[in-house]
Amino acid sequence: MPIVRVLLMVLALLAALLGGAGAMAQPRETEGASDALDLARFVERRAGSTSFAALDAFGESAMAREDREGLNRLYHVTWTVLNQGDFGSAALWNRRLAEAARRQRDDRYVDIAHLNELTIRYDQGDTTVAAEMSRLARQGRDWFVRAHAARLTALWLMDQARTGEALDLLASAEADIPEDDPFAATAHAGVWEVAGMGLKDLNDGVGATAAFRRFEIDYSNPDYPRPDFDSLYNLTMMAVQVGDLQHAAQFYAAHHRLAQRAGLESLSVYDASLCATVAHARGRSQEVLACLRPYGEDLGAAAFLALDALPIRGMARARTGDVAGARRDLDTLRRLEAGADVGFDSPELEAEILFAEGRAEEAFRVLRAHSEGSKVLAARQFSAGIHQVTGVMQQQLAERRSQLETARANTGLQQAIIAIAIVFLLCAAATLAWQARQARRLKAAQHRAEEASRTKSEFLANMSHEIRTPLNGVVSMADALARRELEPQEHEMVELIRSSSATLERLLSDILDSAKIEAGQVTLERAPFDLEQAVRDVAALWRARAEEVGVALEVDFDPALVGRVEGDPVRVRQVLTNLVSNSLKFTAEGSVRLTVASADGDRVAFRVSDTGVGFDAAQKARIFGRFQQADGSITRRYGGTGLGLAISSTLVELMGGELDCDSAPGEGAAFWFDIPLPRAEPAAAAARIEPEVDVEDRPLRILLADDHPANRKVVEIMLSATPMEMVAVEDGRQAVEAFSEGGFDLVLMDMQMPVMDGLTATAAIRAMEKERGLSRTPVLMLTANAMAEHVEAGRAAGADGHLAKPITMDTLFAAIEAVMMEAELEAA
Predict the structure, then answer these.
(1) Of 509, 463, 460, 465, which is closest to residue 757 (Cα–Cα)?
(2) Across-strand partners of 551?
(3) 3-class DSSP string for 108-136
(4) Which residues form the signal peptide (predicted)?
């Protein structure tokens, strides 16, 4: 609890205890009266703007809600009705609150309803419930429950003249309220209402008015109907206690107007009691009797206020000559006081009666005895109050000493922490400087590595182009020679040239793929393709080779996989080609089996097994390394670079799988992997235009652009046996100029040429077609640039196809047929 709040409470309590005994009874203007008047006017306006019928309607609508807000509204209705002394209605609304809270399983409002039930019992005279209220104030499972229990316990403490303890409890309860909770204002309002009543009992008018203002204005919810006007009752009683009878009369008049408007019997009872209290303080005995007359001799519905009403009525009767009536009130009062743990007012009434009977001496003795007893009681109460104040002060001083000792210890600890922090900051600064230096070095090294990678990529691209250009002449001429009628020995020589050039081409492709993988430049495509067709294409590619060496090449394809899948068809074919090629290389007899089957989910399992030479566990550890064979003699015996399996392993990993193998010497080998290949939508049936004649028999007029004479000669020889006409140029500019003259069915375009490269020339041709409104002429890139980025660059420039050198007659005519068919389909 903040010490400032405690000190304020202590000062208020001391002022009340020291000043209360000497309070003057004559009418006077109290400090803060204007604030009290403003508050009274506000309460009258607020209560007059609604009604208890509106409060009932508010409660009925709250019962239809199934949330905590609805429960809080029922709590508001219950407590407002309970404060009017209408215990029957309060019990009804509280049962509704309890039922709704249990239905919603809201423990907070289950406990609130339980506390309300205890309050109803306490207000009707059952003081045994105080222990349970006090327990919940200390041990309630929810801060809201503890706050409500604290205000109820504080009221009980005030009834026991333990106002200091009550205010201390309320201060602790308020400190426990979380400010960010949506129901914090409700709890604050309840705490300040009871705090105002405690300050009123201590005759602290200013403090009580401020507390009631917080209850009525600062923390009140304007959306909740408030027909109650309890604050007017409390302001009236406070004004009477401090002798401010003028304002007491004004406050009572406002209370009386609202009580008549409300029309509730319970409020009429409190209004009559308040009327009698103000009239007694003003010395108007006839008004006292008039206020209480509607309730008869036994006080009727006001009987529960008899301990307050009987002394006032008895004195009024004695002062107006009704001594017998006063005696009856005295007898009744003595019976009630005998069973109540409260201060006695009967001696003062007895003295009034004796004085009215002319027995002044006896009246003086009784009054003097009562005065002495009152002094002793006041002294005891003062002592108890001082004890409460000093107890709180001692507790706060002990806490303050503990805080100071902790602060001293913390000061030393803070100095040590500061020293450590300085050392840490110096170390951190040094570390950051070192890291910055290392980062600069790493960045420079990364830049050098990237530059080296770019240089290597450019070198490989140039090397690929420069090697493929002369290789194109060898492969193409060997292919052309093989198609002619030669002597057996000459045919054998040509085949040797073809096989050697094919090996050289594959070696070149493997080296380029390995370099791209190392540089992280391999990208996968996702496109729908026919998996079965791709597998059977691989088998068809190697079946002739298998038959040459006497090995059976078998395919086992799972029928469940028939149809199109999504993946990279080029890389799938490349991996399967490498595995089948590898198995054929090491299998002299028996078979090679390619198996494709469904796996978990959308994964497909591939397995290539053979009956070849096999390998042992030590060889397996090296088999997926670059430029590795099972042993060094294999290169000499079987050939190959040792790159195929390394490339395949990396590609499988990129596709989401893992390539593995198993073997034993002399028992063959098996390689397997599985990759995700989800199902693709079936391809839409497309109209296919079958050519009337083979492309080789069509009289096409072809424009060839290539800067290398050998390449131009190769294409010329290949086309010489066909009815096709070829016009050859040496660079891109000549190609554009020749195309502008028109009449070409197809353009074969090299990529790297002087003056104007093939990509620029292709883009210029497409622009010319668009400008002149010409139909699209197929452009086939016929180039030694074989990398994927080259293919993409060609398509971006407007090419329809890409054929990498070296070429054969089969690959050339197949590529020509593909682009011509595509053009005819678009034209159709």
Answers:
(1) 465
(2) 590
(3) HHHHHHHHHHHHHHHHCCCHHHHHHHHHH
(4) 1-25
Tell me what the pLDDT averaged over the chain comes to: 82
pLDDT higher than 90, residue 674: yes
**What SS3 string covers 174-200?**
HHCCCCCCCCHHHHHHHHHHHHHHHHH
Compute how many other C-beta atoms are within 10 angstroms of the C-beta atom of residue 331.
12
- Which H or E run includes 335? helix 323-338
Considering Cα of 445, then 450, then 451, then 457, what sign does the dihedral take? positive
User: Token pair for residue 148?
Assistant: 């409500």
State the Cα–Cα distance between residues 169 and 191, nearest whole angstrom. 10
Rounded distance between C-alpha atoms, residue 410 and residue 425, angstroms: 21
Cβ-Cβ contacts under 8 Å for 135 (sequence gap 6 or more): none
Q: What pairs with residue 597 in β-bridges? A: 605
If you write DSSP's letter for every residue of 73-98 in order, what string do you get? HHHHHHHHHHHTT-HHHHHHHHHHHH
Per-residue pLDDT, 22: 39
**Residue ranges, CATH 1.25.40, the chain:** 3-51+126-276
Tell me how far CA of residue 429 lies from CA of 415, 433, 437, 438, 441, in angstroms: 21, 6, 12, 14, 18
Please check the confidence at residue 688 and state whether its pLDDT lies above 70: no
**pLDDT tens digits, one per residue of 612-654:** 888 887 777 677 765 455 444 443 344 445 577 888 888 899 9
Per-residue pLDDT band for 733 (boundaries 50, 70, 90) equals very high
Place of tokens 């219950």: 78
CA distance 151 to 166: 8
The answer to pTM > 0.85 is: no
d(CA 449, CA 405): 62
Using one digit for the tens of pLDDT, what is the confidence trace for 6-64? 444 444 444 444 444 333 334 444 556 788 888 889 988 988 899 989 999 999 999 99
Q: How many CB atoms lie within 10 A of CB 432?
A: 11
Select from 1.10.1740, 1.20.120, 2.60.40, 1.25.40 the CATH code of 3-51+126-276: 1.25.40
* Structure tokens that stand for 411 in this block: 């000061």
Please give the structure tokens belonging to residue 788.
Answer: 């994927």
Least confident span in 9-13, 178-182, 382-386, 423-427: 9-13
The pLDDT value given to residue 448: 83
What would the two tokens of residue 786 be?
A: 């074989």
Closest listed residue to residue 169, CA positions, set 182, 156, 184: 156
At 284-296, the pLDDT tens digits run: 999 999 999 998 8
Q: Would you put residue 177 in left (φ > 0), alpha (ψ -120 to 50) or beta?
A: beta
For 355, the 3-state DSSP assignment is helix
Q: What are phi and psi of 603, to 5 degrees?
A: -90, 150
Q: Quick one: which H or E segment has residue 803?
A: strand 801-804
Question: At CA 531, angle to CA 527 and CA 536, rounded to 5?
Answer: 135
664 — phi, psi (to 5°)? -145, 145
Which run of H or E residues covers position 14? Answer: helix 3-20
pLDDT of 734 higher than 90: yes
3-state DSSP call for residue 339? Answer: coil
Q: What is the C-alpha separation between 192 and 450, in angstroms, rounded?
A: 74
- pLDDT level of residue 506 (50, 70, 90 thresholds): low
Which CATH code is given to the segment(s) 695-827?
Answer: 3.40.50.2300
Residue type, 443: K
Q: Tell which residue, 226, 147, 230, 232, has the closest CA to residue 191.
A: 147
pLDDT confidence tier of residue 761, bands split at 50, 70 and 90 = very high
Homologous superfamily (CATH) for 524-676: Histidine kinase-like ATPase, C-terminal domain (3.30.565.10)
Give CATH 3.30.565.10 domain extents, the chain.
524-676
For residue 531, which amino acid is it?
L
Specify whether the CB–CB gap between 144 and 183 falls below 8 A: yes
